[in-house]
Amino acid sequence: MASQACRLLRLWNRIPGSDDEGGIDQVLLEDWIKEARAKAREIGRGAIADIQIGQMLATSPKGSDGIWPAEPVRAVIELFRSEELESGFRTGKYNLRGVPTRLREKEGVSSSRMRSSTADGPRQRRLTRLGP
C-alpha cells in the first residue's frame, strides 16, 4: 500500500485549485493544503506530508507576472512557513530538471550550456544519439 501511495505522489502533476487554463485558485489551494496537513498530522505523518506538498507545488507554472512559481503558490509557501514544505519545494524544483548527462565538448552541448538552458525550468529536448 505504501509503495502504491508513493507511486501516486510521484505521478501527481496538477496543483489542487488548478483550472484547465493553468490558473490556480489560491483559496482552493490553501483549503486543500490545510485539510491535507491536518489529516497527515492525525496519523503522525505531518513532516512527510509537508515535503510531498512542497514537491507538488514545485510543478507550478509561471505566474501572470512571468515569475516562477505562480503567485498563489508563492502565497501559500509564505502562509504556511514550513521548513519541510520548503525543503520539498527545493527538492521538487531540483528534480524537475531531469537526468543530467555529460557530453564531450566537441560532440555535443557543453554541460555549462545545458545548465544555462534549464535555468527557467524544464524544457522539452530532442535527444539524438551521439556518434562514436
Report on this structure.
With 132 residues, the protein is mostly helical. It has 6 helices and no strands. Helix content is 52%, strand content 0%. Helix 3 crosses helix 5. The C terminus is likely disordered.
Provide a brief overview of the structure.
Helix 2 (26-42) packs antiparallel against helix 3 (46-57) and helix 3 (46-57) packs across helix 5 (83-95). This protein is mainly α and 132 residues long.
- Over the alpha carbons, how many angstroms does the gyration radius reach? 18 Å
Shape: globular
Overall pLDDT, averaged? 80
Helical content class: 40-55%
Unreliable stretches (pLDDT < 50, length at least 5) are 116-132
Total count of strands? 0
Count of helix runs:
6
- Characterize the main sheet: none
The run of helices and strands is: HHHHHH
Structural class: mainly alpha
Q: End-to-end span in angstroms?
A: 45 Å
Sheet-strand content, in percent, reads under 5%
